Amino acid sequence: MKIAVIGTGYVGLVSGTCFSEFGHEVTCVDKDAKKIDALERGIMPIYEPGLDSMVGRNVDAGRLKFTTSLQEAMEGARAVFIAVGTPSRRGDGHADLQYVFAAVEEAAAYINDYTVVITKSTVPVGTGAEIKARLTTLLSPDLFDVASNPEFLREGAAIEDFMRPDRVVVGVDSDKAQVLLRELYRPLFLNETPVVFTNRETAEVIKYAANAFLATKISFINEMADLCELVGADVQQVARGIGLDNRIGSKFLHAGPGFGGSCFPKDTRALVSTADQYGLPLRIVRSVVEVNEERKRAMADKIIKACGGSVQGKKLALLGLTFKPNTDDMRESPSLDIIPALQKAGAVIHAHDPKGMEEAEKLLSNVTFHDDPYGTMKDADALVIVTEWNQFRALDLDRAKGLMKEAVLVDLRNIYAKAAPENHGFRYTGIGRGE
Ligand code: UGA
Question: Fewer Cβ close by (within 10 Å): the C or N end of the chain?
Fold first, then answer.
């Protein structure tokens, strides 16, 4: 099937590439000529494991193309995926849909045969209906349908999530659109992937409810971590002890410095804002947002405490800047709250991240970046692990201690068992690990 994907950000690029891997003929279009030019030369705009080779393979096979011409992308396309950004609008936290509507209206100019317009971007409930209303003023109703097909991709594992998903959710309001979407995902039907066909509004809510629920699990375990520290309990064992109950499940119960990224913070805020419009105070999700924002700020205080109550003039070595490992994405990363707060308290920051330093340099000031973890540690008063990259899981602690002025380790992701650094002479602080 011929498919157009509008927007080559994270979602569009991964989805378009994976659809071409299924055997469809995909054209990805973006207004950013520099990005398209780079993609044509095989240079990826984001770091995502396995993406570059999959792009290369499908471009070589003639199934995947990149262009700045919407007309070219729309030529013969039976499915058009809208995968442009939906940033949080300043002030009210509502998803900003101007790029979605602009993309739909521009694409409409090239629709002259039955086409399904599908939202992949995360859009608030009601957006599909609004798209349909707008298209109805531009096109004959038999020429199009509007569907919602939210993505559940995790950065760093996006290819795997697309090719072997737990489920696919499709919201449609016509049989014809359902048949087309079924055809698009046929390779997954063969793997018996559950596909939830529902109406558009339900599909739109499923996306936000899934992210809000996962974010709730994280804020919940983070608060349990605080309690554990006060009462002498260990949050990792609490997570294991509750997670073994199948009704709870063991995933997304890692306590840490708070969730970041381009999805959870934005989507939880947008969900609260949608509910507000209907006069519904979504109290649980609202608290999740608040707990998370406070948490990121509280992490700086935790580090200061671990340094004996002051970091004035102290040199801190920070490992990991991205919001999670295996990505170069810095959006809403806890490090963006923690570092300025530490600097305000007088600390001098040296940092290393395997993939995120280029982005981090644009967002942080007065940070000295190093190409390897040990470079950060020379004469440092404390070592702080902010993001759990695999590279940091087995640091040479003797070497680290030899380089540092003070052997203090603050592990905001609990990647070390307490005893290991302590055996190497470190004073260790983790998350939720009461004495
Ligand atoms: C998230 C969802 O997991 C995807 O299913 C969804 O498609 C995506 O948002 C989206 O809406 O596009 P992502 O933002 O890539 O994916 O990252 P996650 O792996 O979910 O992690 C989000 C944040 O939560 C990270 O900062 C991570 O460190 C934190 N986290 C995650 C924890 O603190 N504890 C956990 O147990 C799990």
Answer: C
